[in-house]
Every structure is written in structure tokens, then in C-alpha cells.
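Key result, reporting period 2: structure in, sequence out.
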């Protein structure tokens, strides 16, 4: 099957406006776009924001160019204005916008966008980069059928995510009880981290872990060469599907110094998941990206899984 590029199925719309002239219009910022979601999770009012914004129409795709690994893109449900950190992509005639949103959320597209970012502190991709992403040249009927299926899956995933969020809330409540009341029902005392069982001691974590370290800066590769390259997008759900983690090319020193091991804890240090911790279980040869921090527990003093669960509590 022949291929076409993203630029063949949509146009970049860069119409900047003064939001005060659209006082009652919907405003969409990055905070209103959740990772992986096809629709917005909130919105503001144009009159409440300042500086130039992009205008968009219902049916446009609003794609987050800042930190593309966060996978932020939505299908606009109404007209409005948005932050200039969102690229406004307008489907060309005959292109179903429901299909287009599926394209920009696929894993291959995310990897393509990430591989073309510029900037260290605030990595951004660009229209020049993403417009070159290639997809099969499906017929209109096939695009419609793909869109129908993708949206069915999306709705099912949202329902599952809502159920998981409820489960996480219950889990956090249970762990809060365990880490503040213990298992013996003993009296509690007030400490700098809150109430804990009277027989417990509170000590600095620094004495129980090795020095934390930052990850490695590299470009993900689809070629099966080198170690796996763990990114925030690979651990969004709290676990890692190593078969879908890309490879990267790096030297042996980097592999030795940044190589992940079982029971390592990695913590997101930027983006929507900042501070979120993940426990590494069995893994192949792999290194981790620079926007992750690794924490290694001194297993002679502290169980890594205990530390991981503590990091899920309100105290952390």
C-alpha cells in the first residue's frame, strides 16, 4: 500500500488573535488536555487570559507541541481560542477528524515527534517535523471504519481509567492508614511527617538510599540495536511493556552507569506526572531518559517495595 504524510491530510492553522476580542469564547490551555485523551478535560474563558492566542474551529485537532512524549492532543468540540503551545491542525476535505486524532495518538507518531524535538528544558516538536510522518493511504471507507474502532477503544479505555482512578484512591486511603496507624493498633505520636505509630522512628531517607541520578539524553530508535530507552510515555500506567519500548544507541559507559536494574525506582521530574514513582521489575538491558530520576534503595537497610509503596502516600 502506498503512503501519505500527515501534511497530506491536514493543514496547520496559525491564526493569532487577541483573546479579549473573544471574551466569552472557550479557552483551551495545556492544562485542559490530558495525556492520551481524545477530548478535553476542562476549559477556561478567553477573557481571563492574556497575550496572543490561536483561534480554532470545531473539528480541528489541538496538538501539544511541548514535550510531545506527554501525548497531548484533542478533537475540538466547539470553536474557541487556545494557547500557542497547541498546534491547530485542520483536516483537509474528506478527512474524518476522528481518524486524524487517532493518528496523532499512535505510538509511532509519538516516537516520530519526540525524535525531532529541540530544546533541553522545554523540548518542543514542530509542524515541520510532524507533517512528514507517514501513514498508509487508506480509502475514505477504511478511514471511517478505523475511526469508529479507535473511538470505541478510546471510550472503553476512559471507562477503565476512571475505574482505575477509583481503585488508586482506595489504595492510597488504605496505605495512608497503614503508614499512619501501623498494623498493631498502637497509640500514635505526632512527627514532622504527621502521625505515626508510637514505636516508629522517623529518619532521613538519605541514609537508606544510594545517591539519586538523572537519566540519559538520547534519541529513540526503531532499530533493534543497543539498550531499550525507557521514557515517561512507556510507564504511564505504572508498568512497562518492554516489547514496545524503543531502542537507542549509546556507549558502554552510559549503559553501565544508566542501566536499569530490578528494584530500581524511577521518578518523573517534569510534565503532568512530576513526582510520580515507578518500581522497575524484571527488565532487559535498558537505560532511562533524562527526565526521569533513579532511586536505588540500600537493600541491606530498606526494602525497595516498601519505599515504593510509601511514595504512593500523601506524605511523599
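The corresponding designed sequence is given below.
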Amino acid at each position: 500500500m502506498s503512503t501519505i504524510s500527515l501534511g497530506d491530510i491536514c493543514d496547520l492553522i496559525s491564526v493569532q488573535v487577541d483573546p479579549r476580542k473573544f471574551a466569552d469564547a472557550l479557552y483551551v490551555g495545556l492544562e485542559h488536555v490530558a495525556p492520551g485523551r481524545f477530548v478535553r478535560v476542562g476549559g477556561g474563558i478567553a477573557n481571563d487570559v492574556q497575550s496572543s492566542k490561536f483561534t480554532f474551529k470545531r473539528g480541528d485537532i489541538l496538538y501539544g507541541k511541548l514535550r510531545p512524549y506527554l501525548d497531548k492532543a484533542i478533537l475540538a468540540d466547539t470553536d474557541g481560542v487556545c494557547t500557542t503551545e497547541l498546534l491547530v491542525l485542520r483536516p483537509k476535505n474528506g478527512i474524518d477528524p476522528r481518524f486524524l486524532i487517532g493518528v496523532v495518538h499512535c505510538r509511532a507518531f509519538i516516537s516520530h515527534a519526540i525524535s525531532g524535538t529541540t530544546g533541553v528544558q522545554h523540548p518542543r516538536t514542530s509542524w515541520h517535523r510532524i507533517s512528514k510522518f507517514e501513514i498508509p493511504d487508506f480509502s475514505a471507507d477504511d478511514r471511517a471504519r478505523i475511526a469508529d474502532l479507535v473511538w470505541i477503544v478510546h471510550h472503553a479505555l476512559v471507562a477503565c481509567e476512571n475505574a482505575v482512578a477509583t481503585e488508586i484512591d482506595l489504595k492510597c486511603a488504605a496505605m495512608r492508614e497503614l503508614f499512619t496507624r501501623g498494623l498493631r493498633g498502637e497509640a500514635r505520636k505526632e512527627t514532622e511527617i504527621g502521625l505515626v505509630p508510637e514505636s516508629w522512628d522517623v529518619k532521613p531517607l538519605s541514609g537508606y538510599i544510594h545517591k539519586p541520578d538523572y537519566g540519559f539524553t538520547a534519541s529513540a530508535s526503531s532499530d533493534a540495536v543497543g539498550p531499550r530507552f525507557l521514557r515517561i510515555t512507556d510507564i504511564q500506567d505504572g508498568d512497562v511493556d518492554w516489547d514496545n519500548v524503543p531502542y537507542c544507541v549509546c556507549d558502554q559507559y552510559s549503559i553501565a552507569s544508566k542501566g536499569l536494574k530490578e528494584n530500581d525506582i524511577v521518578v518523573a521530574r517534569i510534565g503532568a506526572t512530576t513526582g510520580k514513582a515507578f518500581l522497575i521489575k524484571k527488565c532487559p538491558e535498558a537505560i532511562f531518559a533524562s527526565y526521569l530520576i533513579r532511586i536505588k534503595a540500600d537493600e541491606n537497610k530498606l526494602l525497595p517495595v516498601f519505599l515504593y509503596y510509601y511514595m504512593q502516600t500523601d506524605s511523599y
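The helical segments are 6-9, 97-105, 107-114, 127-130, 140-181, 252-258, 304-310. The chain has a mean pLDDT of 88. This case is discussed further under Risks and Mitigation.
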